[in-house]
Design a protein that fits this description.
The longest helix is centred in the middle third of the chain and has 32 residues. The protein has 62 residues and is mostly helical. It has one domain: Helix Hairpins (Orthogonal Bundle), CATH 1.10.287. 2% of the residues are buried.
Length: 62
């Protein structure tokens, strides 16, 4: 999934979790999916940051 698709899915998950109409097992399943999507999105942002730093000739050791 792309970064944008991850964000869209996260928004859907949040809306479902906020509805208070989910059984606990479904809520936990959605929460787990959201945690994974968050981790993937964070990695994508870090990679983009590294790419921009590299393109700007900045030190990429941090």
């Amino acid at each position: 999934m792309t970064f944008e698709e991850n964000l869209q899915r996260l928004e859907e998950i949040v809306a479902q979790l906020e509805s208070d109409k989910l059984p606990l097992d479904k809520a936990l399943e959605l929460y787990k999916e959201g945690v994974g999507l968050t981790a993937d999105s964070k990695k994508a942002l870090e990679n983009a940051k590294l790419t921009v730093k590299t393109m700007n000739g900045e030190n990429t050791d941090d």
